[in-house]
């Protein structure tokens, strides 16, 4: 089947993404590689079902290496000129999020 996926399928896909992120967080400390695979899988599902990740969810992982970004553990966070800088300590990728207000 081509085109847009039925709504019920997307709903299940969203649920799976949520579960995968929960698993990724749970496994992060003990099994970082497994945790990355969960993030990778969640992203694949998102692509296949055309599901946009919320802003909060997007900030949770590194788009470069699929590692979860946990401040003080796998990421370094600092604020510079009203820009929130998040650095992935796994691959050194830096993400910048302008701070509003
Ligand atoms: Zn990274």
Note down, in words, how this protein is organized.
The protein is an alpha+beta fold and 101 residues long. The protein has one domain (7-98). It has helices at residues 7-27, 32-48, 55-58; strands spanning 75-80, 83-88, 94-98. The protein has a three-stranded antiparallel β-sheet with strand order 1-2-3, with no helix packed on it. Strand 1 (75-80) and strand 2 (83-88) form a beta hairpin. Residues 62, 64-65, 67, 88, 90-91, 93 line the site of zinc ion (ZN).
What's this model, at a glance?
This protein is of the alpha+beta class and 101 residues long. The chain has helices at residues 7-27, 32-48, 55-58, and strands at 75-80, 83-88, 94-98.
State the helicity in percent bands.
Answer: 40-55%
What is the overall pLDDT average? 94
Number of domains: 1
CA-atom Rg in angstroms: 15 Å
Largest sheet: 3 strands, antiparallel
Amino- and carboxy-terminal Cα gap = 45 Å
Strand content: 15-25%
Classify the secondary structure makeup into a structural class.
alpha+beta
> How many individual helices?
3
Strand order, main sheet: write it out. 1-2-3
Order of helices and strands: HHHEEE
By DSSP, the count of extended strands is 3
The molecules bound to the chains, other than polymers, are: zinc ion
| Unreliable spans | none
Note the overall shape.
Answer: globular
